[in-house]
Design a protein that fits this description.
65% helix, elongated, 133 residues, mainly alpha, two-stranded antiparallel ribbon, 4 helices, single chain
Length: 133
């Protein structure tokens, strides 16, 4: 899924940012039509639902195990999303490159390092939960 998500982002960047994608603030999204942004928000929500479904269908014991599977799949997906963006576009240049992380419930902008670190924490928490359950 990280491959598919990053491929969609590649297409969007080619369409709406042919001169390069650089984030300074939420205004970077002003070049994207509102209906396309709505579709992107739907894509983000669908990804979260897909990850939750994987956790619900995979874990069998209890809600802690489901949470652990959700955290693990989210972490792996998020890291590999950036891996694929780098493979496709050689982007981000480095871990301090700003990115639009999410658009739910509003626009989140931060260096790429933030979701990578948070994904690492989520993976560790998932392992701890699984060892305890």
């Amino acid at each position: 899924m990280a491959y598919v998500e990053s491929a969609v982002v590649v297409y969007l960047r080619f369409l709406y940012y042919p001169d390069g994608f650089f984030v300074a603030d939420a205004a970077v999204l002003s070049t994207v039509p509102q209906d396309t942004l709505a579709i992107e928000i739907g894509r983000e929500a669908a990804t979260i639902l897909m990850l939750a479904a994987v956790a619900l269908l995979t874990a069998r014991r209890n809600w802690w195990e489901r949470l652990a599977f959700f955290l693990w799949t989210f972490a792996v997906w998020d890291v590999f999303y950036y891996v694929w963006l780098y493979v496709f576009l050689r982007w981000p240049r480095d871990l301090m490159t700003l990115d639009v992380l999410f658009m739910i419930p509003g626009v989140w902008i931060a260096p790429v390092a933030l979701p990578i670190v948070i994904s690492g924490i989520m993976a560790v928490v998932a392992v701890v939960i699984l060892k305890r359950t």
